[in-house]
């Protein structure tokens, strides 16, 4: 009789913590919380790192099927193999800038010279790849630049940001921007126009990368891009890993001001797959808030935001914060964003260089080059 009462008192005490008070997955998942006369389980949301009572609709953003309800499912994300490296970030921001140049209108030898000067004479350009993205407007190309460094045992794949006429003149632009479609390499859904761009460019990159990783099998593959190119970098990397074109261990993703790519299902499975993925953001970059939840309530950022709360052009010594949750965290972009877009428009270009879409072009001379058709639908300019 007495013992039974003690057990009841103890269990009331142990259930006294509300689910929201648990701050880590292990203590949250599997805990119970008394609601009136029944016990409810607590669930952990790996996207927001918050605990909630099962069935409650507030307190975090995880859908039911993405919530963790048992402590033994907690360790689902691998630690990145390499820590965030701000010097590498600066270098990859410049590679992202190179993806913006139009190789057809530049002197070819001046492109390689600029690469030599900017990257310590250690990289050889392999090819510019251009795939038809006509759905995005006439004569539009989705572009990637691929380079290798034998001395550093690295391959770089940099994806171009926003294309010229794409956002204003694209056919069916509204549904391309609002419809979601499945993305099988990860799971979850992504915005239709991201899928269309990816589908055009991926086969070109894949076949070139296969050739490169055959001769450099242990190379680290750095996949990078700015803004729209950052979204493409995430899709590209996930697909490479799924197809085993590059090993999961060796793929590193650095994006600069990437908008949201897909829904929570996409973010969840991308996060589990891409261990070495860094999503660099900066103060008042509205592009990095693209696919915003007020317009696309289903879109959600991927993990490992690296936030620079600095008003000027950051460099490799500037302070940054590595955010723990996917989005909505105090002291990270969304929390600090000034939505007065007129004031901040230029910030979208300010990643390690004053203007990421212009920087590399400044070191090159004008010229004329033709691109040739190779590998089915891919246009290429080999070096
Ligand atoms: C590119 O520039 C180099 C050196 O300035 C020059 O020798 C070469 O003719 C130029 N090539 C083209 C295709 O214009
Ligand atoms: C530049 O390259 C040289 C030789 O290839 C190397 O010793 C040096 O560490 C490199 N510097 C940087 C900053 O990467
Ligand atoms: C779609 O394109 C039309 C012009 O073709 C333009 O007026 C409209 O603003 C565009 N819509 C979006 C959402 O970009
Ligand atoms: C977008 O979705 C709507 C409604 O489901 C559909 O009618 C339309 O054809 C879709 N657009 C594209 C480009 O797939
Ligand atoms: C690097 O950024 C810091 C601000 O974080 C600034 O004070 C410093 O002058 C910058 N250094 C260079 C070389 O631009
Ligand atoms: C950067 O360059 C683009 C053109 O490539 C231009 O539209 C934009 O205004 C520039 N931004 C800044 C901040 O200079
Ligand atoms: C490129 O070719 C066009 C047409 O042949 C010519 O008008 C133009 O001057 C050339 N540009 C350069 C920089 O050589």
Kindly describe this structure.
With 383 residues, the protein is of the alpha+beta class. The chain has 2 domains: 2-78, no CATH class; 86-382, Alpha/Beta hydrolase fold, catalytic domain (Rossmann fold), CATH 3.40.50.1820. It is 28% helix and 22% strand. The chain is built from 11 helices and 17 strands. It has helices at residues 2-14, 25-28, 86-98, 108-118, 166-169, 173-178, 192-215, 228-243, 264-273, 333-336, 341-344, and strands at 32-35, 38-45, 50-53, 124-132, 141-149, 154-159, 180-182, 189-191, 220-226, 251-256, 262-263, 277-282, 299-300, 305-308, 321-322, 372-374, 378-382. Strands 15-14-12-10-9-6-5-4-17-16 form a 10-stranded mixed β-sheet, sandwiched between helices. Helix 8 (228-243) links the parallel strand 9 and strand 10 (251-256). One of its GO terms (biological process) is lipid metabolic process. Residues 156-287 form the Fungal lipase-type domain. It holds the Pfam family Lipase_3.
Order of strands across the main sheet:
15-14-12-10-9-6-5-4-17-16
Backbone structural class: alpha+beta
Helix residue percentage: 25-40%
For the record, the CATH architecture of the largest domain stands as 3-Layer(aba) Sandwich
Q: Provide mean pLDDT, rounded.
A: 86
Helices and strands, in N-to-C order? HHEEEHHEEEHHEEHEHEEHEEEEHHEE
> Based on CA inertia axes, which overall geometry fits?
elongated
How many β-strand runs?
17
Present as ligands are: 2-acetamido-2-deoxy-beta-D-glucopyranose
Measured by DSSP, the beta-strand proportion falls in 15-25%
Q: What is the tally of helical segments?
A: 11
Backbone CA Rg: 23 Å
InterPro entries: AB_hydrolase_fold (IPR029058), Fungal_lipase-type (IPR002921)
Domain Fungal lipase-type: 156-287
Pfam families: Lipase_3
Protein name: Fungal lipase-type domain-containing protein
